[in-house]
User: Fold this.
Amino acid sequence: MAIRMTTTPSKRFDEKTNEIKRRPPVKPSTDPNHIYITRKTNIESQVKSAETVLNNSFDEVFIHGLGASINKALVFALELERRFGGSVQSDIQTSTVQCTDDIVSLGELEQTETRHRYISAVHVHLYRAAS
Amino acid sequence: MDNYVILGETNEEPQNPFPAPFNSEDVKVMLVSKSSKFSKINGHVLEYFKENPEKNRFVVFKSVNEATEKVISCVEVLKQQFEEPLYQWTRMACIKRIVLWKCEQEGPRDIRVTVEVPVIFIVVSRDPFPGEHSCMSMQCSSDKESAFLPFTNAPRSSAGKSDNKNQERKKNRKTNDNNKWSKPSSEQRKKEHKERNQLLKEIESPNH
Assistant:
């Protein structure tokens, strides 16, 4: 019994007969100095852990925020900059990230469709300024 | 804060963080708020670029009221819509929002709350930026990957880590093969059970 997979050109689908499963977006790196901010991230605790990373193990930290968490990522970067004073500098870049969703038909379980969404992302590079 | 009333709110707007000519007064600044429409803003910018292609070479985007997501999305859409490569320079600043709370009762003093709200400035230019200002915050729409991201196409899976952990756990696990007091394994128990059943059958059989 093969699973049929197709790509839907339209974003619309019937929510009563289909279920959507969102795949997590691909992370550029899994190193401990790459911090991914989501809507559920606690900024205070994350700032503390980023501080320890910058003080002990790395000279640079990468902060990534996707979609609705872009503002939160920028708040996080500003807070880190404020805590380190002038000893830390930042570079910002933006990009578009492709996310994939699986649309599973509730009637025919073997029928699955994929849908691609494009989400804006921000990447902040915080690094120790050369003294 | 029951007895406190907001007396006033002031915003300390940040200045345009870019050097000349991107911070001059006659620069086209697009203020993007949460309710702004992509089509209207991008249509306006495209028209501005087409209006006088020799003079109108860049536009500054600025977020209003924490609409940083919207500005970034707007610029990303504009880069896709525009046929030529566009050069982008992103800078971050913060608005200082000072709120003054006045106490209605006598005694407690007034409270001054300062909140720092991020603001994003993005210069979108048709020409490359001058070399003396070169930094990692600059990017081009023709760039396929972010400059400071060590992106690898190798598939990442957490299964590898857990496999290693399982192997380590298996290595650390004590093997009690020689210890007769240890708890018998499931295979040993099955074997014993089988032997016991066989013995019982032999005893219960009518030949005996």
User: Anything to note?
Assistant: The first strand of chain A starts at residue 4 and ends at 7.
